[in-house]
Design brief:
Blueprint (H helix, E strand, L loop, with lengths): L1 E4 L7 E8 L3 H12 L4 E4 L7 H5 L4 E2 L4 H5 L6 H11 L6 H22 L4 E2 L13 E3 L5 H14 L3 E3 L3 E7 L5 E7 L5 E11 L8 H7 L7 E2 L8 H8 L4 E2 L4 E8 L4 E2 L3 H4 L3 E3 L13 H9 L5 E7 H7 L3 H8 L4 E3 L2 H8 L3 H17 L19 E13 L2 E2 L6 E3 L5 E7 L19 H18 L5
Parallel strand pairs: 1-8, 2-3, 2-10, 3-7, 10-21, 11-18
Antiparallel strand pairs: 4-6, 5-6, 8-9, 9-10, 12-19, 13-14, 13-18, 15-16, 16-18, 17-18, 20-21
Cofactor: FAD
Pfam family, one: FAD_binding_2
Keywords: FAD, Flavoprotein, Oxidoreductase
Length: 465
């Protein structure tokens, strides 16, 4: 991945707006740029657009939407911004948090009205750190459906997309203006495509072991549950161009990936009163803090695994998610009619497991916090039939990246911007700060869609004077 001099380079053709990456960020940017009046070409390294979006639950947090209002859910951008800042210990850039929390609601309503994406808001539970029900998803509650619907919207809008096109190099002049890119096709042939503006929507560096070891050493040996194409191209290109970066250690982990089959198990299994125990049958943390920071906690346990334990009531809530339905179909969600049967099914020591579940039951009955600080007040008791899934911790995607301004333009350390370079989603620094516990559920798709639309409108609009 290099920055090559643009002088004297001949391009096969040139487009006004070129977008690298066809996930939620890139496809949203493409729809917005075309709406701004620009010709658009999206380059995607895979045969079919999937990316990290397809691996997610496809849930996008947004405040003050018409879906919230219909559900009687009071919310607004300031409240959402306060939740983001509180979860991340006030680390994120306030201006960026304000930007995305103001723009995400209108972006979802635009996708619904202009492109037919039928969002609805989840109202039967809240993810940790959210003070309102603001998670919006499509009917299947899956990232696969989200990226498929965005792709269909782009195709219906007549947006050009070139798949199996791996961008290897950018061509730039001495002032940092991007003139085009070099891309490689599966047969080894290469093409050069010129552009008026370039949007980096190719996510972060979670699939690059060297960069992960450098910036997130605690997860350097963890299962990577993101897209293998997330090699840090945007970060490396940006650094070579002199761009500012921020919070490169920030990331989203997840402490609930079914092991060894690799299916995401919704965190509703925990937030609704479930627990996690290690192979000794004992709890080891406050699971309610969030799934991102729980990844490292699970990995510190014997064999790097844990069992998520819940019941049929919670499983009923979890079944609204396609991933959970797939996990049940795959046979990884075990069922037990008693604690003894649960211990036998999971091969956990019965005395320790029974003591753990009885202690949790007492805490719920008394409404007391436990020794880890988890508050069980108001949580329903777990009752047979029990459910259990063997899980491990995983790295999903990185949250640090290139610093952008209020038009999603890539900035230099002095605050000036590179002439025609934009970044969205995982390519840009997000709003989670530098630590895993700073990740508020949905932060990844929040910046993908909000910054994607902002970048597309700015890249597709008139060039700045």
């Amino acid at each position: 991945m290099s920055i090559l001099p643009a002088e004297g380079v001949a391009f096969e053709f040139t487009v006004p707006v070129l977008i690298i990456g066809a996930g939620a960020a890139g496809l949203t940017a493409a729809l917005a740029a075309q709406e701004a009046g620009a010709g658009v070409l999206v380059l995607e390294r895979d045969a079919v657009p999937r990316g990290s979006t397809a691996l997610s639950a496809g849930l996008i947090p947004a405040p003050g939407t018409r879906w919230q209002q219909a559900a009687g859910e009071a919310d607004d951008p300031a409240r959402f911004a306060a939740d983001i800042m509180a979860k991340a210990g006030q680390e994120p850039e306030p201006a960026l948090v304000d930007l995305v929390t103001r723009h995400i609601g209108p972006a979802l309503e635009w996708l619904a009205d202009r492109h037919g994406l039928d969002f609805s808001v989840i109202t039967d539970f809240r993810y940790p750190g959210h003070s309102a029900c603001r998670m919006h998803g499509l009917p299947s509650r899956s990232g696969e459906e989200l990226v498929d619907r965005l792709r269909q919207a782009a195709e219906s809008a007549g947006i050009d997309m070139l798949c199996e096109a791996h961008v290897t190099d950018l061509f730039a002049d001495g002032g940092g203006r991007i003139h085009g890119v070099a891309l490689r096709r599966p047969d080894g042939s290469e093409e050069r495509v010129g552009c008026g503006a370039l949007v980096l929507a190719c996510n972060g560096y979670g699939g690059n072991p060297d960069l992960v070891a450098r910036h997130v050493p605690s997860l350097s040996t963890a299962l990577y549950f993101g897209h293998p194409g997330n090699q840090g191209d945007a970060l490396l290109w940006g650094e070579a161009l002199g761009a500012a970066t921020r919070h490169l250690s920030g990331h989203q982990g997840h402490g609930s990936v079914a092991h060894p089959v690799g299916i995401l198990i919704t965190w509703a299994t925990i937030t609704q009163g479930g627990i996690q125990v290690n192979l000794e049958g004992r709890r080891f943390s406050d699971e309610s803090h969030g799934y991102s920071e729980q990844a490292a906690a699970v990995l510190r346990q014997p064999e790097g695994v844990a069992w998520s334990i819940f019941d049929e009531r919670i499983a009923g809530i979890a079944r609204q998610f396609e991933d959970f339905r797939q996990a049940e179909a795959a046979g990884v969600v075990l069922t037990a009619s008693s604690i003894a049967e649960l211990a036998e099914a999971t091969h956990l020591p019965l005395p320790a497991l029974q003591a753990t579940l009885e202690h949790v039951g007492e805490l719920k009955a008394l409404g007391r916090p436990d020794e880890f600080g988890r508050d069980f007040a108001g949580a329903a008791q777990l009752v047979p039939p029990f459910r259990a899934v063997r899980v491990t911790g995983a790295l999903f995607h990185t949250q640090g990246g290139l610093v952008v301004n209020d038009e999603a333009r890539v900035a230099r350390p002095d605050g000036s911007v590179l002439p025609n370079l934009f970044a969205a989603g995982g390519a840009a620094c997000g709003v989670s700060g530098s630590r895993p516990e700073g990740y508020l559920s949905g932060n990844g798709l929040l910046t993908a869609v909000a910054l994607g639309r902002i970048a597309g409108l700015a890249a597709g609009g008139p060039a700045p004077a």
